[in-house]
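Team,

Forwarding the record for the chain on the shared tracking sheet. I've put the sequence and predicted structure together so nobody has to dig through attachments.
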Amino acid sequence: MEEAMSNFHFRFMSFGYEFRDFFSPRENILKEAGIEPGFHVLDYGCGPGSYVTPLAELVGESGKIYALDIHPLAIQEIQTIASRKALNNVVTIRSDCKTGLRDNSVDAVLLYDTFHALSDPNSVLEELHRVLKSNGLLSFSDHHMKENEILAKVTRRGLFSLSRRGKKTHRFLKEEWLPGDVKS
């Protein structure tokens, strides 16, 4: 489905994120997501882990973080962060689409700056819908896309509906549907 970027490109991107995070802390983005203590959260396309530490603070010890990425260096970086900071509630998943998580097992999904690069975004949205609990939330941001494009692509198939527009993110709620009800 997706192809992992080169190690050089990943490291270059990671360096850019460090710069970005200094001027725009990830905590500020996560405030818009509506994440609460005890939540199980999937960070889909987690990259070098900018959200892992502030997310761990939000969900607390009773919560869980699933950090998914296709790139092996992303998974390695998340594991390093979790080990260094003794974050025992972080699980890494290396995948390009399927999460391996149970149906209805996640309270929230972060889908940040990933959607534009997906070769099969509909399959990813279906997978996120599958793992989200009833009324689960999808926190979405992609600076490569215009707002009308985001709204159209995320809501078109009836899997999600817009709940809230933030300054940096859109919050979508999982819609209940039957597999035969999906619009193409």
